[in-house]
TrEMBL record:
This is EpsG family protein. InterPro entries: EpsG-like (IPR049458). The keyword Metal-binding does not apply. The chain crosses the membrane at residues 29-48, 87-109, 115-133, 204-223, 243-266, 273-292, 322-342. Keywords: Membrane, Transmembrane, Transmembrane helix. It comes from the Bacteria. Pfam families: EpsG. The keyword Membrane applies.
């Protein structure tokens, strides 16, 4: 646990220096240092996270699983394990860590405003479902890495490449297929008639209608859908409890986040609008989590765009008090998510003690 916090402090210090510096050499040094620090944390990890040994077993049994009619592991992941056999399980972990970090770093450095790069790394490292959970859920982390590439194609209005990337991601985790409807977001940017039809506040009306329809469908048929996918759900028995509403403040907060990203998306055009709308769809999944908490894994795909979407909002919001207020709310929300993670009976026991191959 202390190792993780130390890594966070080092990377955040580098990102603050990068955001503040105008010298290209300093920025390059800060980026390289952050990448190296994170790779030294990810690469040598040993028995860290809930599923470390499960993936170890899959790696050594990948040939048999690939030909088994009862196998539930995606074939893309199995083929990757087979290709990495000459390098060992450690080679698989290091290789996937390098590719994952490269995709995330490229996304942040390309899309996030320079002034708020530090905030992007804060959201990456402190929000558990953006980083720590990925150390355990290696298949989905790899799928999310491909989705990060797909989102950039979507923002560039290259729908065919977006769809191909999503299908590729589904070879590593089937849940990625749920992201296919996001292609709709780019359609108004490609078609002038649709752009006029869905201009202004109409986008919010369309999305709110979709949200309400989705919530109603989940409340009516959600339990049945989960039962019909029981074989898939059984793979995650430790994560499948239903969510609870409690005071309802969390639901209201996330509904507010949805409206916030939609509102600022309407104030942007082109690439930035698409990224903000994708981030807004994170909160369309919330109703499903009350049927089964496993649905929160679907939120991990669009949520990764938060690394760029929130900095975009703060950059274009000229009113200082509103800018500071939005930033404070999301920083507090992220810290609350981190606190819940470290006090969770599901995750905390397997993440508090960091071990590396160097100490074993």
């Amino acid at each position: 646990m202390l190792e993780y916090f130390f890594v966070c402090l080092l990377v955040l210090a580098c990102s603050v220096a990068q955001s503040a510096s105008r010298r290209g050499s300093v920025r390059v040094f800060c980026v390289a240092s952050s990448f190296l620090v994170l790779l030294l944390f990810l690469g040598p990890r040993y028995s860290y996270g809930n599923d470390y040994w499960s993936y170890f077993d899959v790696y050594h049994d990948s040939y048999r699983l690939l030909s088994s009619p009862y196998n539930q592991i995606e074939k893309g992941w199995l083929w990757l394990n087979i290709l990495m056999q000459p390098f060992g399980y450690r080679g698989l972990i290091i290789g996937t860590s390098v590719v994952y970090l490269a995709a995330i770093f490229f996304f942040i450095l390309r899309e996030a405003p320079q002034r708020y790069v530090w905030l992007s790394f804060f959201l990456l490292l402190v929000e558990p479902s953006n980083f720590l959970v990925h150390l355990s859920a290696m298949r989905q982390a790899f799928a999310i890495m491909i989705f990060v590439v797909a989102v950039q194609f979507l923002a560039s209005k290259k729908l065919v490449l977006f769809l191909l990337c999503v299908f590729l991601a589904s070879l590593f985790h089937r849940s990625a297929l749920a992201m296919l409807p996001l292609a709709i977001i780019a359609l108004p940017e490609l078609n002038n008639r649709l752009s006029r039809l869905l201009s202004g506040r109409r986008w919010i009306y369309v999305y709110l209608a979709l949200y309400l329809i989705f919530a109603w469908l989940i409340s009516k048929y959600g339990a049945h859908w989960v039962d019909s996918l029981q074989a898939e759900v059984d793979r995650y028995r430790g994560y499948t409890e239903s969510g609870t509403i409690g005071t309802g403040l969390g639901v209201l907060a996330q509904a507010g986040f949805f409206v916030l990203f939609m509102y600022y998306g309407l104030r942007h055009r082109g690439r930035e609008r698409i990224l903000l709308f994708v981030c807004a769809t994170t909160y369309l999944v919330v109703p499903l989590t009350f049927v089964n908490a496993l649905a929160a894994r679907l939120m991990m795909y669009p949520q990764i765009t938060m690394l760029v979407a929130l900095p975009l909002i703060l950059t274009h919001e000229k009113r200082k008090h509103i800018r500071w207020g939005i930033g404070a709310v999301f920083i507090a929300w992220t810290l609350l998510a981190s606190y819940r993670f470290w006090t969770s009976e599901v995750y905390a026991p397997n993440f508090k003690m960091y071990e590396s191959v160097l100490s074993n």
